[in-house]
Write a structure and sequence with these properties.
The structure is a single chain. With about 210 residues, this protein is an alpha+beta fold. It has one domain: Protein Transport Mog1p, Chain A (3-Layer(aba) Sandwich). It is built from 4 helices and 8 strands. Strands 1, 2, 3, 4, 5, 6, 7 and 8 form an 8-stranded antiparallel beta sheet that branches. The longest helix has 16 residues. About 40% of the residues are buried.
Amino acid sequence: MQNTRTRRIRIALAVLASGAALALAAVPATAAAGAGPDGPPRFLEPADMPPHPTSDWYAGAVTAGQPDPLPICVGEALPSISSHRAYWTEYDTNALQVTVVERDEQRAAALAALLRKKLADCAGTLMRQDPDITAEGKYYGKLFVEEGAHVYGVHTSSSWGSSDIGLFSVGRDGRTVTVVKWAQLGTFQHAQVADFRVTTATAVNKLY
């Protein structure tokens, strides 16, 4: 069981920093990313992502269900009613948005709180699950948008030489919760925190 969990962590960390698997269809997204206020929540567009210095952003279609592989730390908390959209550049930067529409605001608030706890504990969780991983987490504060959004950073390095930086956010509007992830090779010095905060606010504002 431990070996299976370790393999899953390593796969997730590889996806954290590499959009290669997604770039097989590296063309600008044309699929609809959501509906109006009475329809499903809208998703981020490629142009909403933190700007990449040398590449456009691309996106897949909005897809029902949990993403595969699951994002680190929050993945196992995402229910089957999730929907998600993947984003990538031509280089080493990728992103993901996962949105959940709960039955009521109480359930949505509980899910958002659980996801925030998972992210707050993310670095420790990764190191407990895989002794080859060294991780550090940071909390970048709350955004006052709708019911609020919270931004986190996680840096991981490994015994085999990888160094990956990821930014995560959890936001809520009513009974809808969204998680946004941005990742690339690098350290906290490479994290586009200010841009990601703008992306997060846009994501929450777009929910309905």
